[in-house]
Amino acid sequence: MITRRNREALVAVVLGVAALVAGIQLINIAKGEIANPGNESIIQPAGTIRTSAVDVSIGWNQTWGGNNSDYGTGIWSDGSSVYSSGFTYSAGAGAADVLLVKWDAAGHQLWNRTWGYATGDVCNSIWGSGTAIYTCGETFVVSKWEMLLVKWDTDGNQLWNRTFGGSSMSSGKSVWIDGSAVYTCGEVYNGSNGNDLLLVKWDSDGNKLWNRTWGGAGTEQGTSVRGSGSVIYTCGYTDSFGAGGYDMLLVKWDDSGSAAWNRTWGFDGGDVAFDLWTDGTAIYTCGRTYATYGYLYGNYDDIALLKYRSNGTLEMNKTWGSNATEQGKAIAVTSSAIYVLGNTNAAGNDDFLLVQWDLAGNPLGNITWGGNDTEYGNALWSDGTSIYACGDTYSFGAGDVDNAIIKWILPSAVLGIDLVPYIALVAVSAIAFLAIKLKRVRGVA
To answer: Which CATH class is domain 47-411?
Structure first.
């Protein structure tokens, strides 16, 4: 006869087994298996994947393009949809046109939009909020290029567009929003055969609030803008200051547009910062370093990764490379790792390159993606569970060069939470409960 205690023991056994099975299944999903809701087809990766202990797995990749050249320059996700940006010669009004494409989380295209005139329009960056998408680049107006900012809704309808330049030539390289204001950075001609870093603040209706420049007698460019609270950071390069040639540049601004401090890093060759990331306490920049006297692997570019504190103290500088050319074009930082996207020609033609470091700057591994021709990784976005990369591919797609988008899945993360410790806690609790119940059953005559 089954007693009440025996029934409790049986229930404990079932709970323990269920917890272990559920834990195993969740860990499998967290380590890169793709769930398939609704029995949708999963888009399988093309190209060659070469991996060296990097702790991500590929979810899918897609290309977008026509018979002509189409470039991918930016990527952003709201958690459910993915937006990629670039410029296209295959569609639009003529010459180059701004390109915006929306994808679902499984990699299926939902729509695409172009914007521009017959004279030429380029998009270099994208950022979004829950209700709007902003793209930044440049447009050719009359006889010169000017910084361009376009606001879209999430259905792809253009809400407004703005340019900045006045009598001087300018360009937009990056856009970032803090919820109430929009910041764009790039460069503007300074009238003395050089350019200055340009930072512009706009409200959400497209009204310019202020603009600032930073530079010296030579050339400066802003390549990325990010912020935290009332503080704004821009990175790029300068040949007016530093060690010689181009140096990596980081400038800190307050929300009124006053520069708080600036820092340069580099050698006597060419050192450029392409992207930055910040949480308000730490600021990471990535780019390339090249030194004429044979630094690192000789006469090749290497990835440069720098970490600053909010007071401007350089806390870490790391380089990564081989006897080939590597560049770091974009950066994303999670709670446990740093990821830098760029390109390498170590295998011949350039490939997408993703390098992973721990938060102390120790390299953990790398992944390359590419085919028989050339690929460039240009932009990176992470939501804590996945990494999205955007760039150019000559190996795949419909035309000469196509916009390429890759999704990588981060380990042990579902809904942005590292589940392994929680799974272990549930399993251990269930097993302990089981052991207590069994002990009580055995103690009954």
So the answer is: mainly beta
| Cα distances (Å, whole numbers) of residue 375 to 40, 133, 392, 406 | 28, 26, 5, 12
Contact status, residue 185 vs residue 169, Cβ threshold 8 Å: no
Distances (CA, A) of 334 to 279, 337, 413, 444: 10, 5, 11, 53
pLDDT at residue 372 tops 50 = yes
Beta bridge partners of 220: 238
> 3-state DSSP helix/strand/coil percent for the chain, to nearest 5?
10, 55, 35
On whether the CB atoms of residues 57 and 387 are closer than 8 A, the answer is: no
Which token pair is 235?
Answer: 């990175």
Stated as kind and residue range, the H or E segment containing 7 is helix 4-30
pLDDT at position 424 is 45
Q: Phi-psi region for residue 132, left (φ > 0), alpha (ψ -120 to 50) or beta?
A: beta
195-250: per-residue pLDDT in tens? 999 999 999 999 999 999 999 999 999 999 999 989 999 999 999 999 988 999 99
Cα–Cα distances in Å, from 367 out to 51, 109, 245, 249, 339?
Answer: 5, 25, 31, 28, 11
CA 100/CA 354 separation, integer angstroms: 24
Instruction: Give how far the C-alpha of residue 319 lies from the chain's centroid of Cα atoms, to the nearest Å.
Output: 19
Which amino acid is present at 348? G
pLDDT in tens, 382-391: 998 999 999 9
Q: With a cut of 60, say whether residue 10 has pLDDT above it.
A: no
Ranges of each domain in the chain: 1-31+418-445, 47-411
Q: What pTM does this model have?
A: 0.82
- How is the beta sheet containing 302-309 ordered, strand by strand? 272-278, 282-289, 302-309, 314-320
How far is 76 from 158, CA to CA, in rounded Å?
17
Please tell me the number of Cα atoms within 13 Å of 252 on its side-chain side: 20
Q: Which of 250, 256, 195, 253 is nearest to 220 (CA)?
A: 195
Q: Which of 417, 415, 388, 414 is nearest to 403 (CA)?
A: 388
